[in-house]
Amino acid sequence: MRYYKLLIFLLLSSSSISGIAQNNTPLKPCPKSPNCVSTLESKGRKKMSVLPFIGDLEKSKTKLKEIVLTIKGATLVVEESNYLHFEFSTSMGKFIDDVEFYFDESTQHIHFRSASRIGYGDFGANKRRMKKITKLWKSHLKYTI
């Protein structure tokens, strides 16, 4: 019984201690509510395409930070070696949206998730924001090739 509890503890804590979700990224799946988009969703309105690296990890991270911080309401709250977490404060109601990026060096892809922290709907705000960031990213990518 003692080993059984230890095994369960190790299995549960291995993902939660490192912050890595089952999909091997720190990005959680989107909830059932429509106020979230992610590159890890498999279908529907929540699915968005990954961003390619620009050069190496550090160059990609630096450029993405520059792009995101040009958008009104953005604040960088967590920066790790392959992860960025921004909070966006909305102008109406001062709601907070969380925008996270995971840099997968093995595939040279940047995964992201953008979600409202509270509530059910967002009138498409998260999707519009991520489309804007994607457009700015692709625009910069075009000039670096």
Number of strands: 6
In total, the number of domains comes to 1
Indicate the CATH topology. TATA-Binding Protein
How would you characterize the largest beta sheet? 6 strands, antiparallel
Helicity level: 25-40%
- The end-to-end span amounts to 59 Å
N-to-C order of helices and strands = HEEHEEEEH
As a whole number of angstroms, the C-alpha radius of gyration is 17 Å
The SS-based structural class is alpha+beta
CATH architecture: 2-Layer Sandwich
- The average pLDDT is 84
Strand content bin: 15-25%
Please give the CATH class.
Alpha Beta
Shape: globular
What's the name of the CATH homologous superfamily?
Kinase associated domain 1, KA1
How many helical elements?
3
List the helices and strands and how they pair.
Layout: H1 2-18, E1 36-38, E2 51-52, H2 57-69, E3 74-80, E4 83-89, E5 96-104, E6 109-116, H3 125-144
Antiparallel strand pairs: 1-6, 2-6, 3-4, 4-5, 5-6
